[in-house]
Amino acid sequence: MSELVVGPDGLARPAWASVHEDLRDYYDTEWGMPVRDERGVFERLALEGFQSGLSWATILRRREGFRRAFAGFDPEAVAEFTEGDVERLLQDTGIIRHRGKIEATISNARATLALRDEQGPGWTLADLVWSYRPARTSMPRTMAEVPTTSEESAALAKELKRRGFRFVGPTTVFALMEALGVVDTHLLGSHRRGTSGVWGEDGLPAS
């Protein structure tokens, strides 16, 4: 039995992306589309960290609040946040008020800048994440077949931790890779399968 839901527009989506308009729009326009800029990758890394233990809908509906709170996820700006900023953010009802996750986001901004300095001009967090793109991606027919970790996400998580990043376990990192298009876990038959320009419907690189 298919786990895809065909909407009034005739497009097939997984059930999680078929319940609410905001989740449907996110699935249709953003999730799994390639993000290769430093700020975009840093934002999604931060949001995946905040999502740990919560539903993605909870994070998505606070996204603009997160952007306001964290200076549009500009790593240079966030790296300058102080303990006073942490206390301010703990009072901000527009975000998830979790001290550890707030402090990790600030720490990760600093690690993002350190990565630039270590690797040289033009090399960023985005380059590091995309360097762990696998040789092929999964081809799930059901949600039960969608992986939650991979050899590459475990290796990337280990490397991020080595470089001082926090809240970057293999599962969180795999979710990041899904969101950025580094892997494609769209169900076979979904209207989004193979549309990123990164992966073909057969699980092999599109280019």
Distinctive features:
Endonuclease III, domain 1, DNA-3mA_glycosylase, glycosidase, 207 residues, 2 strands
Describe the structure.
This protein has 207 residues and is an all-alpha fold. The protein has a single domain (4-180), classed as Endonuclease III, domain 1. The protein has ten helices and two strands, in the order E-E-H-H-H-H-H-H-H-H-H-H. The protein has helices at residues 21-29, 38-51, 56-60, 63-69, 75-78, 83-89, 99-119, 125-130, 151-162, 170-180, and strands at residues 4-6, 12-14. A two-stranded antiparallel sheet has the order 1-2. Helix 2 (38-51) packs antiparallel against helix 7 (99-119). The chain is globular, with a radius of gyration of 17 Å.
